[in-house]
Amino acid sequence: MPNLNLTGDPEADALLASDPLALLIGMLLDQQVPMETAFAGPKKLADRLGGLDVNRIAELNPEEFAGVCSQTPAVHRFPGSMAARIQSLCAFLVENYDGDAEALWTSGDPDGKEVLKRLKALPGYGDQKARIFLALLGKQIGVEPKGWREAAGDYGTDGCRRSIADVVDDKSLHEVREFKKSVKAAAKAAKGK
């Protein structure tokens, strides 16, 4: 099992390292909140639900599941909309992969391009999120399908500090934050021209 340090919470990181569904949900939650908050979300859900069961999450009453996500501390700053996204993700996995999250990158021995295509098909995953997740798989989980770095684009570059895929400790978390700030500043400056 890989040794992840994405949240600063050893138990939350252990869940992410051992449960592909937890990792997928963490990546799904990684928007409009700090990275470590997003990736701590699956542990909150597992604690409240007695584990992460893809079928159970997919089948739960949406209002009940939104309530689970809204409990303090909330799973995300937008718990209602994220609850719906998590349930959509789980329903997609049940329907297309018999509930096996890991099958996204193992079924049929896919190459990097195919894994990226499968990730982009997930509800709540766009191109950028799919590329970051593919880089996370390759850099930290040990899932390295042929051509994964190329498929992940800049996120697959060895030694870069662009995303959660590159966070291994507090120093690298700070470096990723600084990179993101510089990208936002450059985009803002370009808009002002």
What does this molecule look like?
With 193 residues, this protein is mostly helical. The protein has one domain (10-153): Hypothetical protein, domain 2 (Endonuclease III, domain 1, Orthogonal Bundle), CATH 1.10.340. It is built from eleven helices and no strands. Helix 2 (20-29) packs across helix 3. The longest helix is centred in the last third of the chain and has 23 residues, at 170-192.
Give a topology summary.
Blueprint lengths: L9 H9 L1 H10 L5 H15 L4 H6 L2 H9 L8 H19 L5 H4 L5 H9 L6 H15 L6 H5 L17 H23 L1
> What Rg is obtained from the alpha carbons, in whole angstroms?
16 Å
How far apart are the first and last residues' alpha carbons, in Å?
A: 48 Å
Shape: globular
Q: From N to C, what is the helix and strand string?
A: HHHHHHHHHHH
Assign the CATH superfamily: Hypothetical protein, domain 2
Count of structural domains? 1
Q: Which class of secondary structure composition applies to the elements?
A: mainly alpha
Q: Indicate the proportion of strand residues.
A: under 5%
DSSP, total strands: 0
Reading off the top of the CATH hierarchy, the class is best stated as Mainly Alpha
CATH architecture: Orthogonal Bundle
Low-confidence stretches: none
Average pLDDT over all residues: 94
**CATH topological fold name:** Endonuclease III, domain 1
Biggest beta-sheet profile: none
Q: Approximately how much helix is present in the residues?
A: 55-70%
| SS summary, helix count | 11
